[in-house]
Fold each of these.
Amino acid sequence: MDGRVDPARIVAHARTLSDFDVLCVQEIASGFDDLPGSAGEDQFALLADLLPGYEAVAGIATDRERPDGGRRRFGNLLLSRLPVLAAFRHLLPWPPDPSVPSMQRVAVEAVVQAAWGPLRIVTTHLEYYSVRQRAAQVERIRALHAEVCAHADAPPRDDKEWGPFARTPRPRSAVLCGDFNFRPEAPEYGRLQDVVGEGVPRFRDAWGIAHGGLPQPPTFFVHDPGEPAYCCDFVFVTEDLAQRVADVAVDADTQVSDHQPVVLRLRD
């Protein structure tokens, strides 16, 4: 919020909040020298270099040619010091909505080896301007979750357990986090937590599990006096993980980002 773009400062501040196993960050850019505060640096590489010992899983939503050569890329990044058993990148729906500006969005998924077993971590950044696009993206996330659970119920034939056909764990249990660009009162918030299908664990807001009826503090426009602050950065967990939610915290004070960081702690 002070106009200084500094990936190293982001990582340093994150370390003050938690000795984190997984760090999920959104709006990561490379080659976009026209973004305010940026010289076009490769922020994907910078963040990965700042966290040696962490596996970096990048999800590219926008990938374009630079006029002077090279690429312009924009998306999300997940960094894990837990073993990453598998990684998936999901481009989200982008139906036409000519009434507003918009861009391609992505969800990044990593299956990590938690203390109790495999766990899916998904981080995303949904459309800001278009309600239609954001609603479609919520439906896609729900469908992807249902698809994972269907695979768990009906695994593929095992007569080609080699090369890219080899099976990798992909459990029902998941953490879903990021900048959703909807408010708690928006239909998309409830829709994301609706029943998906029989045998599919629903997503629940981890803040509500940890804090009951206490509203989550605002996470956007907190330090911008020109706009009313509200909450749009959430952490959801599948309902089977509810008993593992030890705490969810929001850092309301920092100004190293225009969004306030959210920390989830799970019990082993």
Amino acid sequence: MSAPAATRWARAIVVGPGARRALRAGAGAEGRVELAFGPGGYVSLGDDRVLLAPARSPLGPLSILVAGLVRGDLVPGMPAAVAGEALIVGALRIELADARRPPAPRPTPLAPGWHAALAAALEVVAPAPAQLAPGLDALAASDLAAAAAQLAGRGDGLTPAGDDALAGFAAWRWAQGAPVAMPAHRCAPLGRGYLCCAERGELPQPADAVLVAVRSGDARAAARRARRLASWGATSGAALLWGMAAGAAGTSRRTTHGTPARVCAPGSR
């Protein structure tokens, strides 16, 4: 696919790790704007998605934060292509060469008081809807096949919420030093992208901040950061925390009983 002609230049400030992988894999692939909101939006590059957002936005693993991005730059259906060290979207050319890489995620050891910190965080976000409860229970039991069958692609939100819960669980397990490969074939394309990042410990900044506070046993910081997390997407922030809580339930079970919870073999991707 040839790159569309560009008439305006912008510059990427930071590129998230998942977005970097998508840019590499998407070179030469068909791309387009899938969704636009405000000055930003989601762009598909082959099978992957990236989020274009203004420079001061919270950073997510699929985000490309762009200086000079304005409302109207992205229109659904507009063609997109990777051209060397640039992403061209319609008439916009986004230079990528000098964009920063965020620091790699680092596991946070569990500290005393983490149970109370998790409870404090959960108090300030919406509770999980009843329709997701069986899947979250399966996650807490580390029955990944059952959890994916009941959560993947389900619930409200763009991702949707069930996919975000799977991602929160995967991130907790990564931080615990027991990473999992989730059965992701039923997830929505965007949810699958965020889930694959979470399996590597890569989360949106607000979610990572909550995870660190909880695992550090800092209840006050966990509650404060959870309030900010609640504004990440329509339901994504709360759902990520529900998934973390399910992962934490498995941690409590293994700590209490000394027996690892069962992990089913992951399905195809």
Amino acid sequence: MASARTPLKLAVAGLGAIGLAVARRVDAGELPGIHLVAAAARDHDKARKATAQFRAPPPLAPLAALAEVADVILECLPAAHFAAVAEPALGNGRILMPLSVGALLDHWDLVARAEATGARILVPTGALLGLDAVRAAAEGTINSVRMVTRKPPAGLVGAPLLAQRNISLVGLAQPLMVFEGSAREAIAGFPANVNVAVALSLAGIGPDRTRVEIWADPTVTHNTHSIVVTSDSSDLTMTIQNIPSLENPRTGRITALSALAALRRLTATLVVGT
């Protein structure tokens, strides 16, 4: 009789709205075969209070040290800190699950690094839908991909491109398109808002051919992403309306659930979907 598999050791980099939600569920034993062994947080006092009721509060460690103790590192950080966790994780041959996937475009050499060390970069779907269908279409020929994102103005406040163009969203009464361009340009201007555009581009035709519109829309209460794909195998039209996180309106509640689903897939006996 075969023995049970050794549990995968998980470290969570960042205990904000997403990281804490994932850590809490893993600590509660909801993901069989996944064991929470460490976490990293900027504010250790706040992190200790947030995890005080865990069955086994994870030790807090520097970002670079997570790869020394874990098999899988879930990255839930501001994009500026991406490399600090990604480089040691991939250098040590670990599995990296980045939520700041847009930052990967600025560190594309890490893909080759992962190939050299045997590491893997697994990007959760996040607040999007249909990436399995886009990946399947990409095995043939995709002609075009376009995504239109609409968010309540509060979900876009603080974006660098808005500051550069002196665009104020205060008191906005009508929908306003604040960006139109490629996915690569979108993530540069909105690094905390459209990681989904980069995930879509990597599943399909790349960050330079994937077209993106971003709207600040006071008429919506959900973060909404509409995607149109044309290809030689199928034409796809998809829309998702995500409920914003109470802790961070820039991201949807489903993002943490997507990370949990991606982790569960690592140990599941039955896996559904491409």
